[in-house]
Design a protein that fits this description.
It is a single chain. It contains 13 helices and 19 strands. It has helices at residues 4-27, 41-57, 79-98, 114-123, 139-148, 194-198, 206-218, 244-252, 272-280, 297-303, 309-322, 341-354, 381-403, and strands at residues 32-37, 60-61, 69-74, 103-108, 129-131, 153-155, 176-180, 182-183, 202-203, 223-227, 259-263, 287-289, 327-334, 358-363, 410-418, 425-430, 435-439, 448-456, 460-465. The chain folds into 4 domains: 4-155, 3-Layer(aba) Sandwich (Rossmann fold); 179-268, Transcription Regulator spoIIAA (2-Layer Sandwich), CATH 3.30.750; 286-404, Transcription Regulator spoIIAA; 407-465, Nucleic acid-binding proteins (OB fold (Dihydrolipoamide Acetyltransferase, E2P), Beta Barrel). By secondary structure, it is of the alpha/beta class. A hairpin with a 4-residue loop joins strand 16 and strand 17. Bound molecules: S-adenosyl-L-homocysteine, iron/sulfur cluster and FE3-S4 cluster. Residues 77-78, 191-192, 194, 229-230, 264, 266, 291, 293, 331, 333, 362, 364-365, 367 line the site of S-adenosyl-L-homocysteine (SAH).
Length: 467
């Protein structure tokens, strides 16, 4: 059953179909659209919704910048994400000058910032439609307005309590899918803009999540990724509170789902119950992404991460003890205000003791409006560069050692697609989130195979099918 908002948006999709048809007739060709995603898995999932609505309305997808409709789903977690968007927009301007019918839209996390809106209005007035993260579900309505009102439309909300998830979605992969289990974040790590652009934490009801996954399974999906900025606090604010571990137990029961992943876990409230579910489950993948950010107690405190170095290490080692073949990956920030070489060496110490299987290492980016941006002890660029290299080298050395530990074993892999360099080979993914290349063809995509890991190449394996 569709809720009121979902019904309203479906009506707008019908109106859009008319508009698209008329334009098609005038041009004697299909209308094309390009959806480009910046940022995290949640944005990727949101983009699938954008594309779902566009395709339902009659657009054909293209990667070309010459598309009739281009939409950028933006990220603002670090400044380089913003700069990439401005760069791409600049390149669209001359194309739009040649094609007066072309329409350009911007949505996602960047547009939730007033400074960005001001800049767009001033210097990018060729952008036709701007909306935010809270009213993405109104996309059909906004598109309709864009095509019927001849002016720049800026519609950004600062919050919402509507959840409208039963609208068309065009999945990137037929066999795997992300599912939003919660929105927003309440943690306010002092460097991070996400709580400001994604709003307060809200969990979806478990029955709605289960209904969505059951439908996905019937539609051929066998791997799901449960998405939230901090999945460990899932369900705490529901009318009938449910823990994340309890939700996982329910998801496990759904027929046809063979693999369950989730993203992201905050170390501060990772429960023993969750470790037990991961240990005992035949479906939960042997991988956890557990952002560390820093190994220094002083910096962790200034970051408002609420755990200290030894607590993090204890937790990670407890997980390793319970599930020895698990891979643990992390996020690390280098160059947070006040960070010294000593602090960086604490981070390296955690890398060596936890033995991360991999890590994303980021240079601290100052985000206007966050508490860290106002801190006076910002670190100089040259110092950060040196420290970044130290951390990166430690991460890479550890990753090589850790990822290679499965050599010679026979593991189950999900075949995800043809290998880009060699189309007589396919790329598969282990439960531990490690890529394996092996002989195969298109017919194998979306299926599981037992593969012997015969060769290790630093960050991926070559394998041979054994059954
Ligand atoms: N909710 C997730 C992270 C989402 S953002 C969590 O807390 O684990 C993804 C990563 O971007 C973060 O883990 C952090 O390492 C990085 N990040 C966030 N803000 C940043 C900033 N201002 N500068 C550099 N990296 C940042
Ligand atoms: Fe940002 Fe922290 Fe929330 Fe993650 S938990 S999104 S790093 S504020
Ligand atoms: Fe970026 Fe927004 Fe995700 S800021 S990391 S796209 S929540």
């Amino acid at each position: 059953m569709l809720n009121q908002e979902e019904k309203l948006q479906s009506e707008y999709i019908d109106k859009l179909k008319e508009i698209v048809k008329n334009k098609e007739n005038a041009l004697s060709r299909k209308l094309t659209c390009q959806v480009t995603t910046f940022g995290c898995q949640m944005n990727a999932r949101d983009s699938e919704k954008l594309l779902g609505i566009l395709k339902e309305a009659g657009f054909e997808e293209t990667e070309s910048d010459e598309a009739d409709f281009v939409i950028y789903n933006t990220c603002t977690v670090r400044d380089n994400a913003n700069q990439r968007v401005y760069g791409r927009l600049g390149a669209l301007k001359p194309i739009k000058q040649r094609n007066k019918d072309m329409k350009i839209a911007l949505c996602g996390c960047m547009t939730q910032e007033q400074s960005v809106i001001d800049k767009l209005k001033k210097s990018y007035n060729f952008v036709d439609l701007i909306f935010g993260t809270h009213n993405l579900f109104c996309f059909a309505e906004l598109l309709y307005r864009m095509y019927t009102e001849e002016k720049q439309i800026v519609e950004v909300w600062d919050k919402t309590d509507v959840i409208a998830e039963r609208l068309p979605v065009d999945r990137k992969y037929p066999f795997k899918s992300g599912i939003n289990i919660m929105f927003g974040c309440n943690n306010f790590c002092t460097y991070c803009i996400v709580p400001y652009v994604r709003g307060r934490e809200r969990s979806r009801k478990p029955e709605e999540i289960i209904e969505e996954i059951t439908k996905l399974s019937a539609d051929g999906v066998n791997e799901v990724m449960l998405l939230g900025q901090n999945v460990n606090s899932y369900g705490k604010n529901l009318e009938n509170p449910v823990s994340f571990a309890e939700l996982l137990r329910e998801v496990e029961k759904i027929d046809g789902i063979k693999r369950i992943r989730f993203m992201t876990s905050h170390p501060k409230d990772l429960s023993d119950e969750l470790i037990e579910v991961m240990r005992d489950s035949g479906k939960l993948c042997k991988h956890i992404h557990l952002p560390l950010q820093s190994g220094s107690d002083r910096i962790l405190k200034a970051m408002n991460r609420v755990y200290n170095k030894e607590q993090y290490i204890d937790l990670a080692l407890k997980i390793r003890k319970a599930i020895p073949d698990i891979s643990i990956t992390t996020d690390i920030i280098v160059g947070f205000p006040g960070e010294t070489r000593e602090d960086v060496m604490e981070t390296v110490d955690v890398i060596n003791r936890v033995k991360f299987d991999n890590a994303f290492t980021f240079i601290y980016s100052k985000r206007t409006g966050t508490p860290a941006a106002a801190m006076e002890n910002q670190v100089s660029e040259s110092e950060v560069k040196e420290n970044f290299d130290i951390v990166l080298t430690a991460v890479q050395n550890m990753a090589k050692e850790q990822l290679g530990r499965f050599l010679g074993e026979t593991v189950e892999v999900l075949c995800e697609g043809l290998n880009e360099q060699d189309d007589s080979c396919v790329d598969g993914r282990m439960s531990q989130n490690i890529i394996v290349h092996f002989k195969g063809d298109e017919s194998m995509i979306g299926k599981y195979f037992k593969v012997r890991l015969s060769d290790f190449h630093g960050f991926y394996y070559d394998g041979e099918i054994v059954e």
